[in-house]
Amino acid sequence: FGIAAAETFVITTTNRKEITEDNFSELVHDGVTLYLLQSVDQILLSATKERIDFLPHYDTLVKSGMYEYYASEGQNPLPFALAELIDNSLSATSQNTGIRSIQIKLLFDDSQGKPAVAVIDNGSGMTSKQLNNWAVYRLSKFTRQGDTESDHSGYVRPLPVPRSLNSDISYFGVGGKQAVFFVGQSARMISKPAASQDVHELVLSKEDF
Q: Which CDD domains match (predicted)?
């Protein structure tokens, strides 16, 4: 790597967890991406890219969930698709100690490309590993391994709390990716974990598939 003999460096995960002799064995078979930096808090000079490999045929991703939406018994299915996306934000903001902010924006500015639906929240944010998990088909938020922010195992909605304030409002349960491709042609997830200085971005596009 061209490191001088007297130069110090650290190896970290993309969530800036330093790799040491004590925790190295945990990561050997994890397939996690690593950074080689001068210090743990070093600012990245340019964006980094990470390729995600997953096996399902693209039709599985961009067309599954369609049956549920079109079989919505004559109801307008668009609100159900938006509910899937808002569900993610409700989950992300469920542990907020202050105000929970969730915005839905419809963007029609031609200078920004095609029209878009944006769902913006002030939740805990996702690490690159959690974004990877979100991209994997049928990896439910209830069963994701090592994903504490999205671990809903044993979750029971309190009776006094309206359903609209909890992350279980999605009607069909087909997932955010299926909702995205029901509404449009691509998804862009931009997230900054609360404890990190890095912003992570994930793009899924029917055109790329």
A: HATPase_SMCHD1-like
